[in-house]
Amino acid sequence: MKIQNIRNFSIVAHIDHGKSTLADRMLELTGTITERQAKDQILDSMDIERERGITIKASAVTMEYEHDGEHYMLNLIDTPGHVDFGYEVSRALAACEGALLVVDATQGIQAQTLANAYLATEAGAEILGVINKVDLPAAQPDLVAEEIEHVLGIRRNECFHISAKSGLGVKDLLDAVCMLLPPPADRSDEPARALIFDSQYDDYRGVICYVRVFSGTLKTRQRIRLMGTGYTYQVTELGKFRPDMRPVDELGCGEVGYVIANIRDLANVRIGDTITDDVHPAPDALKGYKPPMQMVFSDFYPGNNTEYPRLRAAFDKLSLNDASFTFVPQNSQALGFGFRCGFLGLLHMEIIQERLERENDIDVVQTAPTVSYEILLRDGTVKRIDAPSELPDRTMVAEIREPFVKLEIITANDTIGGIMKLAEARRCKLLKTDYLSPTRVMMVYKAPLAEIVYDFYDLIKGISHGYATMDYEFTGFEAEDLVKIDILVNGTPVEALSLIVHRSNAEPRGRKLITKLRKSIPRHQFEIPLQVAIGGKIIARETIKAYRKDVTAKLYGGDVTRKMKLLKKQKEGKKRMKNIGAVEIPQEAFMSVLDTSE
Amino acid sequence: MAELATGPTKSGRRASCVKREADSRSASWRALARGQASDERQGTRDDSLSFGLYVHVPVCRSKCRYCGFYSLPADRVDAPRLVDGLLLELDRCERTGFCTAYIGGGSPSSLPVNDLLRLVQQVRRRCLPAAEFTVECNPGQVDAGFLEGLRTAGVNRLSFGAQSFLARELELLGRGHSVEQIGAAVTAARRAGFENVGLDLIFAIPGSSPADWQASLDAAVALNIEHVSAYSLSFEPGTVFEAWRRAGRLAAVDEELDRAMYEWTIDRLERAGLRQYEISNFARPGFECRHNLGYWANRPYVGIGPAAASCLTLDIREGGRRITNDADIERYLAAVESGRPAPAQTQVVSPDDAVCETAVLNLRRRGGIDLAEFRRRTGLDPMRIFADPIERYRAMGLMEVTDRAVRLAGRALPVADTILCDFSALD
To answer: Disulfide engineering: A164 pairs with which of A18, A49, A428, A484, CB 3.0-4.6 Å?
Structure first.
């Protein structure tokens, strides 16, 4: 394959704007899959992805296409669409020369459209504007084209009008990919360098590295070196995703595919690392990725302590497929042995939790998500903590700094009032408002991450009847008047329930929290006091009344089967709770900490 | 019940089984599995190596508004045909030597007396001489002749569905008998020669006050009966009460009062010499219901009739089966009349589940788990396999442990299910 005829590109879009459907149509049009094979949205291979209609991880597929009498190899690298996964998007874009920016003709530009466009520009990718769903009755392609021109500077007459669902305009788009996107730079004479942009673990074959070759050629049986970690391996198989894995003898410069080299240890492969030839190594590695910044932290404990080793193995496996997720062992007096996990955002956290339970069948108890803080100590040193329980003694702390973000919200102008009210209550400062069109407005805020990380997105969705979208970007840590709230259950302080809040909010938040806890902790055989303490002083109390009656009156021969089933269910319910000082605390209780709704 | 009809009856084999029984416990269980009771036990009241027999009579004069059991109105059922059907199913079961028998319902006393007596006689024929034989009766459906008939046919225990001693409550429950008829029925039972008479009572009836329940308890005690079963009213799916509750016409008694009523029950009956021996059951010493004790010991039993359940777990260490006949009376009769087994659902009980069932059922007894009995039946030490919950609840003062038994503490009884659930599966 001539390098001039290779095109590496991504599709980037706001969630639900039709990215995966477009990918499917392209696969069909290029004969990569038949219509019969086309399971809906073939690139979303995880159950969770298909169920939630989102793409979590990048994946790649190689298509062949005839254009103007020439044979082209099109490598499509899929990207996630959610606010949490900007990091994965930029990883995928680093392996591409071009990007298709898809915008829904009925929705217009959304917050993630912008975020993705910025990422593509940053990665130096050539962008083609694509307006999708133009055949829907509610479509306003001209208005959307105007928005694209106004906001992104892509000329309105250069946008492609398509319907990924019906296939309308998709062939023209493929032709445009061949004509308008640049080919990879030709560095076939240089030493081999391939960027690992993703990886996956297979129980039988070890680590499967997804790579883009930037220079030289990779060959089977070649001795390779991972430049970042220094490990060397022999390539046992090279191949391409068509979309199933098809072995090839070599991967040439500019091509995308996979490398299997009998790599058994998950830790040896770092996403963003460069593969080179062990005998004739390249002098420098490719520019890798900035390590992702975890902004949201939560502790995971096995529902049953004997499952700790299984939980660790499951996290090892998950982290191989998800470089943006971190975990370190954690030992809590209340909850036993577990892990403190770092996530890019809330959705990312939910997905990890679900994958953990679904793919590994492990019951976990999870603490409320918190953000990371910077603590200035009296001796002048600065310390990062990612859980309220790590806050040093008050007497040692000079100041507590919390993370701030630049928050962009795009919404209809008649819902601005409600959103501004919410933002104000959450300590957000409005920086500017910008009208994208007479009815649509973009608001930019400076916001404390802790205030928007949990339910903010759901709330603005509610206020705007589903219309508003948001995205945020970390800007830095700043000192605020913050205090720690402690919660005592049955007289025992429960670290996993403590939280750091702004002083002005502390008392109402504490009261609200124990009211919620009173509802989420089930009654026991005894009375349970719940107390809120700020700086060691009890400021509020609630009581969970004792269970008065829970006994089956009649249990004779015919009732045994049904009764045993009910008792087992009751026992299962307890399994998802954590026993702290004889009190069974359910998962929801740990999560209710950050829920500030009424 | 086809499974039960296949035991070998050749006398040679029976003799050899009885001989081995002396030195092998499991051999006696195998013999039991074939329906053979050992000869030396026939005259005793040791029920530990024998089956119970339950017969379900799914008819009532009128449906009580709280009752969730399967039954049909008596005037819509051909009683002679129903009894013939029950006897056909009983005939399919070759087992004899039952240590206890219990005819319940529904309302067995709503059957014409001749039909009921045909059933009683056939059941009696299959029981050991010293068997306990109970028939459930509605106090409004019995008279001297009826009761004498039962006594003569070999019934030795009566359980009257009294439920309440307040006319207003009987009316609300839809019982179809009066307060006076309860006393009259007990008196008639004594005259007919019954020395073992029990009453069923219901508390936490909607609208019931503490004084109402205390009055019913006092009235029951005054009748000098041997046994009381006292149940907290529960709203069962498909009942009139449940529909009324959902429509807002009835309100459940609040949990606090329900619990207080339960505690008064225990106190009042114990003071009258009726000792609590199970969560809802009270008896004068020696008059505990042997049939129901069989359930709580997790001993095997045969159930005859629509909706009746059989437990064929003979050796807990091997697990077993529970077979529940389908409720539909027409399909039941059609099957047994054409020589087929009653339509039924079979549930396989794994050895682990059988162990847990034993623990849960045992713990309902006031005596709890008898450590030696449990070890003998299951081959496992309850103090080891349930070490976690036993230690936790003992520390909380909700369980009591001696070197012979583990049982619920008195204050744990009102919340027994929150504790028993931890014994429902092995970790």
So the answer is: A18
Q: Which two tokens mark B330? A: 């027409």
CA atoms of B264 and B220, how far apart (whole Å): 14
Above 50 in pLDDT, residue B357? yes
Answer yes or no: are the C-beta atoms of B94 and B35 closer than 8 Å: yes
Element holding A180 (H helix, E strand): helix A170-180
Cβ within 8 Å, pair B424-A551:
no
Dump pLDDT digits (tens) for A350-400.
888 888 877 788 878 887 778 889 999 999 999 989 888 889 988 899 999
**Segments in chain A below pLDDT 70:** 35-58, 80-88, 290-293, 321, 323, 333-334, 576, 591-598
Portions of chain B given CATH number 3.20.20.70: 42-294
B126-163 pLDDT, tens digit per residue, is: 999 999 999 999 999 999 999 999 999 999 999 999 99
* Partners of residue B424 in chain A, C-beta under 8 Å: 564, 567-568, 570-571
Class of the B355-427 domain? mainly alpha
Range(s) of chain B covered by CATH 1.10.10.920: 355-427
CA distance A566 to A555: 12
ipTM computed for the complex: 0.87
Nearest-Cα distance to chain B for A539, in Å, is 29
Place of tokens 């020669």: B193
- Nearest-neighbour CA in chain B from A589: distance (Å): 20
**From B256, B357, B412, residue closest to A548, measured CB to CB:** B256
| 8 A C-beta contact, residue A376 and residue A398 | yes
- What confidence score (pLDDT) does residue A457 get? 83
Domain A296-366, CATH number (from 3.90.79.10, 3.40.50.360, 3.30.70.870, 3.40.980.10): 3.30.70.870
